[in-house]
Amino acid sequence: MTEPAPSQDGLKRGLKARHMQMIAIGGSIGTGLFVASGGTIAQAGPGGSLVAYALIGMMVLLLMQSLGEMSARLPVAGSFQTYASVFVNRHFGFAIGWNYWFNWAITVAAELVAAGIIMSYWFPDTPGWIWAGLFLILLTGLNALSAKAFGEGEYWLAAIKVITVVVFLICGVAMIFGILGDSTPGFSNWSDGEAPFVGGWLSIVSVFMIAGFSFQGTELIGVAAGEAENPKRDIPKAIKAIFWRIMLFYIGAIFVIGMLIPYLDPSLLSSEASDITTSPFTLVFERAGVAFAAALMNAVILSAILSAGNSGLYASSRMLYSMALDGKAPKIFARLNKRGVPMPAMLLTASVGLFGFLTAVVGQGSAYTWLLNVSGLSGFIAWIGIAVCHYKFRKAYIASGQDLANLPYKAPLFPLGPVLAFVILIVVIAGQNYQAVLDGNLLQMASSYVGLPIFLLLWLGHWLATRKQPAEVIDPWTAKLN
C-alpha cells in the first residue's frame, strides 16, 4: 500500500474523496437534528421553524462556499486561522485559532458527558464516567492511528446518521400519504392553534441560534483540506453537495415532523439528548409501527455523539498543530508521530476534554454550563472569521493580478455571500439570549455572551504582546503558509 503524500505543513494526505464527502455530511447531522428539532417546532411552530432552518441553511451554504474557495486554493490544516493571519492580521488569526481550538476541546467534553448518559439507557447501573472514559480512549486511539483512520471512522459513523435520516424521510412521507400508520393528519397540524407561525419573528430569531448550533461542524471540511488526498477535486465536490444535504435532511425532516406531530404536543418540548423517548424521530418511528424505536434512536444518537467527539479531537488537534507551526502556540505541539499525527496537540485536547467531563461529574454544573456557552458562541465567531477572511482573500487574489478562472472553486455569490452571512451571524449572536437582555438578567446575559469578551481579550492580548515585533510578510500564492 502506498504511503499518503505529505502536505505542505508536514501532515499526510490520507483522506480520500468519500471521506471528504462524509465529513461534510456528518458535520451537520447530530443531536441538533435528532432531538432539538422538536423543541424548535414547539417554540416557533412548523412554519416558523422551517423558515428559521431554511435561512440558517442558506447562510451556512454561503459560508461553505467561501471556505471552499479558500481551502481548495490553499489547503492547509490551519484553515481559517491561517487565512485570518495572512489576509486580515496575525492578531485576528491568533484569536480565531485559539477560539476554535477551545470550541472543539469543550465540545469533546460535552459529548463524553452525553455518551455516558446515553449508555445508561442499556446499562442503568454502570456509572456514566466509566463509559465516558472508555469512549475517550477509543476516540483518542482512533485519531492516533492516522488521518485515514479518523476519516474511515467518521465515514461509517456519518453513514449511520445518513441512513437513519433517509429512512425517517421515507417513513414520514409514507405516513403523510396514509401508506403507513393508522391515519394521516394531512395539513391539520399547520393550522392548529397559532400554527404555522407561533410567536412571530422573535420566535424565529430564537430558533436561529438553535439551528446555528445544529449546523456547527460543517466547517470541518476546511480543516480536513490539509490532509485531503486531492483537495482541488474533492473540496468543490463536497461543497456543491452541501446545499442539497441541508435541503433534504434538515428542511425535509422539519417538514415531516411538522406535518405529523402538532406543535402543542408536550413531547416536542424536550431538547435533552438523554430523553430518547421524546425525540421527534422516535415519535414518528413509533407511529409508523417500527419496533424498538427508542432503542434504535438511542443507538443512532450515540453514533452522532461519537462522531462529534471524533471530529472534535481531529479538528482541535490540527488547529493547535497549525498554530504551533505559526508561532501562536508552544512548539511542542508542532511535533508529529511517524504516521503524521500531531500527538502532543491531540493529547492536550483529550486532557481538556477529560477535565471538562470531570468538572461536570463532580457537580460543578454551573461552571460547566458557562464553558459550554463559551464554546457554543465560539462556533459562531469562527464562522464570522470565515466570512471576513473570504472577503479579504478575494480582494488579495485580484490585487495580486491572478485570474479568477484559475481558482479550483469559485464562490458564485461574492461579495454578497460573505457579506450576507456576516450580517445574519451578527443577528444570531445578538439574539442568542435576547430574553435575558429584555428582562435585565445580568447573570444570564453574562453566561450567554461571555465568549465575545474572551475572543476580544485574545485579540487584544496578542496585539499587546507582539505589537513591537515586525509582522512577517507572506506571499500566500507562492509561499508555504505554515
UniProtKB/TrEMBL annotation:
What keywords does the record list, in alphabetical order?
Answer: Amino-acid transport, Membrane, Transmembrane, Transmembrane helix, Transport
Q: What is its main location?
A: membrane
**Topology of the protein relative to the lipid bilayer:** Multi-pass membrane protein
For this record, the Gene Ontology CC terms, alphabetical, are:
membrane
One GO MF term:
amino acid transmembrane transporter activity
User: Residues in domain Amino acid permease/ SLC12A?
Assistant: 19-473
Similarity remark: Belongs to the amino acid-polyamine-organocation (APC) superfamily. Amino acid transporter (AAT) (TC 2.A.3.1) family.
Its name, as the record gives it, is: Amino acid permease
Q: What is the lineage of its organism?
A: Bacteria, Bacillati, Actinomycetota, Actinomycetes, Micrococcales
